[in-house]
Amino acid sequence: MRVNFTVNGRKQEADDVWEGESLLYVLRERMGLPGSKNACEQGECGSCTVRLDGVPVCSCLVAAGQAEGREIVTVEGLADYAKHRDDEHPGGGCAGGGCGTSLDAAKRWQAMPHDSQSGEQGTELSPIQQAFIDAGAVQCGFCTPGLLVAADEMLEHTPSPTDADIREALSGNLCRCTGYEKILDAVRLAAARQDEVV
Ligand code: FES
Ligand code: FES
């Protein structure tokens, strides 16, 4: 079957999708977007988290057919999504087909933060991505894409989260490296910076 959906704000289609295929598989293997990670493929670890119509889901548990006509945001589109949310679609995202990240741009996307030493300007990161780097919350990075998507969604709805809010929002995301404290620091940092801007 053919699946038509919006990925990172742009209309896309995937052909020859079979009924049991997961959204995670379609994103990684058909769309060429490997940012969402497949660790457990059982809904346990959250490393495959994407937003489906705005809601964080484990994409390994979503049948690709269920994504028909719906809007997906992956970690590759997170920076544009955050920017559009702030600039052009306050309170929403850049889903809908008119703006967003092209598939080619999403495939090429790499985290290249602003280098404060050389002054070199890299790809612009979303505030939560920058906070993860600044707080040292990334080790092997396998869990990071899912955590970023989940944390960004939480900050969208809860700009000044308590620690309990953060723990609740990230409770479905497992990390085997960091012990979570740096991840919590990163989300606190992003929230504090968000507060400063307002
Ligand atoms: S890969 Fe989907 S929850 Fe682990
Ligand atoms: S699993 Fe390695 S950084 Fe989280």
From TrEMBL:
Domain of life: Bacteria
Signal peptide, first to last residue: none
Domain 2Fe-2S ferredoxin-type: 1-78
A Pfam family annotated for this UniProt entry: Fer2_2
Keyword set includes Iron: yes
Single annotated GO MF: 2 iron, 2 sulfur cluster binding
Keyword flag Lipid biosynthesis: no
Keywords per UniProt: 2Fe-2S, Iron, Iron-sulfur, Metal-binding, Oxidoreductase
Xref: SUPFAM superfamilies: 2Fe-2S ferredoxin-like, CO dehydrogenase ISP C-domain like
Annotated CDD domains: fer2
Classification via PANTHER family: OXIDOREDUCTASE WITH IRON-SULFUR SUBUNIT, XANTHINE DEHYDROGENASE IRON-SULFUR-BINDING SUBUNIT XDHC-RELATED
Protein name, UniProt field: Oxidoreductase
